[in-house]
Amino acid sequence: MSVAIRVIPCLDVKDGRVVKGVNFKGLRDAGDPVELARRYDEQGADEITFLDVSASSEARSTMMEVVSRTAEQVFVPLTVGGGVRSVEDVDRLLRAGADKVGINTAAIHRPELLTEVAERFGNQVLVLSVDARRCPPGVSTPSGYEVTTHGGSRSTGLDAVAWAVRAATMGAGEILLNSMDADGVTGGFDLEMLDAVREVVTVPLIASGGAGQAEDFAAAADHGADAVLAASVFHYGTLTISQAKDALRSAGHPVR
């Protein structure tokens, strides 16, 4: 029996508020994270993802409080990421109520962190967040995609597909593949990038960046996504969780 495709709203949190922009620029307020999480839980979201987009020490203390308040009120898994640098950071987030923890930049600087987290907590709690883009002029990778950091503003020169493979072998239980080119543009997921990563990794793959209409979710699932994540279309009422699931169901994909 096929595993259901998960629909995941993403809440980018800055200074205790949900924000959203285009390509991580022009951020505007989208509401209270606890209230939005509660609403998405009621609407049938399969999971909820929080990303601390400022990742300063002050914002992170706010994030801990947001996670704790949310965990008390919603009944779906919470994934929390942003500024996670150590096993101790993961421990604190799990104790605050997170079910999974997303790691991005710290794993690029020290890949061994992935193994350390997986060995201590199990790989089911570890989500590798990959902010990838098509290589700009002057950058070349075998796949044509590179990993970026700091909201897509910093080039790493790291091949995105090769990094996904390495991370999976080191303990990442899931990969959140976010297209920085498509983020907030609502023109559809980067299906070619999904294909490239799906071809070489077996861990669950979460498609992120670009959802604009219900059919985009089905297209991502057609190209191997195990879960589909979106922000703007849900926050601003363009689409509901039900509409995304209806589109997946109509395309023959099982949903909860």
UniProtKB/TrEMBL annotation:
Gene Ontology biological process terms, A to Z: L-histidine biosynthetic process
Function per UniProt: IGPS catalyzes the conversion of PRFAR and glutamine to IGP, AICAR and glutamate. The HisF subunit catalyzes the cyclization activity that produces IGP and AICAR from PRFAR using the ammonia provided by the HisH subunit.
Pfam family, one: His_biosynth
EC number: 4.3.2.10
SUPFAM superfamilies the record matches: Ribulose-phoshate binding barrel
Pathway listed: Amino-acid biosynthesis; L-histidine biosynthesis; L-histidine from 5-phospho-alpha-D-ribose 1-diphosphate: step 5/9
Coiled-coil ranges per UniProt: none
Active site: D12, D131
Name used for this protein in its record: Imidazole glycerol phosphate synthase subunit HisF
InterPro entries cross-referenced by the UniProt entry: Aldolase_TIM (IPR013785), His_biosynth (IPR006062), HisF (IPR004651), IGPS_HisA/HisF (IPR050064), RibuloseP-bd_barrel (IPR011060)
Subunit composition and interactions: Heterodimer of HisH and HisF.
Subcellular localization: Cytoplasm
Family to which this protein belongs: Belongs to the HisA/HisF family.
Native organism: Actinomyces howellii
Catalytic activity as recorded in UniProt: 5-[(5-phospho-1-deoxy-D-ribulos-1-ylimino)methylamino]-1-(5-phospho-beta-D-ribosyl)imidazole-4-carboxamide + L-glutamine = D-erythro-1-(imidazol-4-yl)glycerol 3-phosphate + 5-amino-1-(5-phospho-beta-D-ribosyl)imidazole-4-carboxamide + L-glutamate + H(+)
Enzyme kind, highest EC tier: lyase
Any one Gene Ontology molecular-function term assigned to this protein's record: imidazoleglycerol-phosphate synthase activity
